[in-house]
Amino acid sequence: MWWFNVDYVELACKLIEFDTSNPPGDQSECADYLADYLGEFSNVRVYEKDGVKNVLAELAFSKSGPTLAFNGHWDTVPWSPEAWVTHPLKPVVHGGWLYGRGAADMKGGLAAIILAFEEVSGLENLEGKLILMAVGDEETGGFKGTRYLLSRTGLRPDYVLIGETTDLLLKVGRRGIIQAKLRVYGDEMHSSRVYLSYVSSIEICSELTLLVRKLDPGDAGDIMPRTTFAVTIFEAGVKENVIPRTANLHIDIRNTPKVTRSDVESLLRRELERLKEKYGDFNYELDVREAAKPYMIRDSHLVRVLEDVYRKLGLTPVHDAGGGASDGRFFVEEGVRNVVEVGPIGENIHGINEKVEVESIFQTQKIYIEAASAILGSDKS
């Protein structure tokens, strides 16, 4: 029997102790723990997709009224204990920070929203529903987590709060994801003959790697960074004394709503054609695909509610739209227009000595309680 009635630090530590690395993605123990915990005071269902369990908890206050969803994930990126001050799965609190794999992304935030969910379960004069979506697949795309839950249940909440680490900023938008795969064809030859004229696929891809990093479509906004291009995979070579015929790049692009997949492909082809002027004619294959759409929703009822909550708690509401993608995009794709991410202060996400500020976990918990009270309160005057 699990021990319930924990506080936010204890719950965050408990979650960190579970190895929920994704891949491989087997986090049944953590899912079962949360299902048991939430089942003490809410209606819980568990949905499984390809071995990944997802927990959906519901508090129904009335048959009518709005539906508010809290969303968070417990899966983490893989870890290695080398270079950590403490073992990644043995959480430690030091200097006001909680250390451990997933502390910032996002077991600290998940602990906050779970305890806020529990607190709201005991409040009176509420109407509608409060949903908690605790999912086991976000780090590898979310298609077996939030995306699957929305598809499987048909759930379309009116309001969505996501507990990703945001440093207590109101994240009202996210850039999209475009993936480009490039193969460049050059001359294959013995490496001792480089004094001859030849076209090197490696040299072309090396220069392109540096060029795309500086590409700027001029689309930066006041809170959303410009579209960025980053080479994340570079593959070339067959033998130590052979100039290879082909070299391959994988380019990760994070685009704003102002830049489309077609725009990205045109920019990359423009740079490749310019490189032909320097290296001579060469062939290439370029495949550009959209993986996630960008969005920006600053003027919504949920944003205004949160701004009021922040002021009530003595915090200053600041909008943000930086960082990578999140599960927020799945709700936006389904037509939900009230989607905001709010979470604690974190550092070294996905890195060594990942940590979350302890006090900000508690602040996140209070924000979620106040937001739920404002949205679901029967007295809207």
What do you see in this structure?
The protein has two domains: 8-173 and 295-376, Zn peptidases (Aminopeptidase); 176-292, Alpha-Beta Plaits, CATH 3.30.70.360. Helices cover 31% and strands 26% of the residues. The chain contains nine helices and 20 strands. Strands 1-2-6-3-7-18 form a six-stranded mixed beta sheet. The longest helix has 19 residues, at 103-121. The radius of gyration is 24 Å and the shape is elongated. The two termini are 43 Å apart.
Structure described in brief:
Helix content is 31%, strand content 26%.
Write the layout of secondary structure elements.
Blueprint: H1 8-17, H2 28-39, E1 43-49, E2 52-60, E3 67-73, E4 92-94, E5 97-99, H3 103-121, E6 129-135, H4 146-153, E7 159-162, E8 170-171, E9 173-174, E10 176-185, E11 189-190, H5 201-213, E12 228-236, E13 242-243, E14 246-255, H6 261-279, E15 283-292, E16 295-296, H7 301-312, E17 319-320, H8 328-333, E18 339-341, E19 346-347, E20 355-357, H9 358-376
Parallel strand pairs: 3-6, 3-7, 7-18, 8-17
Antiparallel strand pairs: 1-2, 2-6, 4-5, 5-20, 9-16, 10-14, 10-15, 11-13, 12-14, 19-20
